[in-house]
C-alpha cells in the first residue's frame, strides 16, 4: 500500500522520510486506541518529531495539541485540563513500511491551538482542517525552501511549516529563535516566517554581517503577529532589496484576516466579512476556529460574527488600520493611547532590540505611558533618539513619559513580548529593568 498524504496537506509532495514517520506515528497512535475524533497532546523537543506525530494524528482524523515547554506547571495543568487529551505522546515515531487510509474530511477537527499565554491562562481553541486549508490558499503559494525559525508550539510557526509542506517545499527548522542562526540558515531558504521583533533582530545581524547579507537567499519574508512600523519596512527594503515583504494580520481565533503585499495597505482576505462596531473589529470568516474547549467540552463559536477586541479603522482606500488590542491601551489623562502604535515607532530606533509599551500608575493622570526597551548586546539606544522618534511621529499625549531598559523582555512562545506578564512584573517590582537615561 502506498503512503497517502495527510489530508491537511492535500495532494502536496511530502518528503518520503517525513511521510513514513507520519504513517508510523499514526500506527502507534492507533495501537494505543486513538482514532477519528481523538485528542492527542504532543510533548517532544524535536520539531521533526512534532511534525511526524502531528501529521500522523491528522491521518487518523485526530486533533493535536502541541505542548509548549515554557509553560509553568500551573499553565500546563490548566491547558491539559481543558484539552483533556486521550493520549500524551513523547519520543520519536518509527517509520512505517505500510500506510493507513486517511480518515475524516474538511470538517474534521485537527488542531488544538492555544492563545499566546500573555494573559493569566492560555485558552484551548479547536480548528477544522478546512479552516487552515482555506487559510493556506489565502496566503497563496510562496517560494521554497522555507525557514521556520521558532518552536512549533507556536501556531504562527506551525502554520508556516504546514503551509510550506502544502506548497510542496522543503523545510529548514530551527527549534528556537536565534537571530545569528536564522541569518545563517537564510543562505539556504527562499521564504521565512517571523514576527516583527524577530525581523528587526534578523535585520540587525544582516546589517553588521555583510557576508551573511551577501549570502542571504531570501525572496519572501512573511511577517505576522503584530504591527510592523514604517522604519522597519524601510530598513528591510534597504537591506533586502530583492525580497518581498508579506505582512498579515490575524488571530488564533480567526486565522488570516487581512494581508499586505508591497506598498499597498492591509487588504481584507477575500470572503472574510469585517464589521467595525464602536471601534472594535468583528469578523465573520470561513477561516475561523470551531470553538473553545473547557474541561474537555466543546463550546462552539456560534459560526457567526465574533471579536477578539482589536481596535481598527478603515482608511479611504479600504485598507485596514489596526490600532491594537483593546487590552493593549493605556488610559492616560483621559486619553486612550494604543500601545502598539507607540511600539511600532520605537522599534525603528537603532539599538532597540524590541519594546513594550504599557501604563504605570500616576496620581493625577491615572497612568502614564511607559516604554520598556529591550537593549541588545550592541549599542544602547540613546534616550534623546527615542524621544526624537516619538516627537516626530506621535502627538504629545501618546509619547512615553517613563523610560525603562531591560536586557530581555519576557516572551510568549511565538516570540512576542508577554504583555500581561510584563505589566504584572512592573506592578510587583520584579521586572529586571532600570531607568533609561
From TrEMBL:
Domain AMP-dependent synthetase/ligase as annotated: residue spans: 21-93, 103-274
Report the residue ranges that make up the AMP-binding enzyme C-terminal domain in this protein: 341-416
Q: Give the InterPro entries listed for this entry.
A: AMP-bd_C, AMP-bd_C_sf, AMP-dep_synth/lig_dom, ANL_N_sf
Q: Which UniProt keywords apply?
A: Ligase
Taken from the record, one Pfam family name reads AMP-binding_C
According to the lineage, what is the superkingdom? Answer: Bacteria
Name the protein family: Belongs to the ATP-dependent AMP-binding enzyme family.
The name on file for this protein is Class I adenylate-forming enzyme family protein
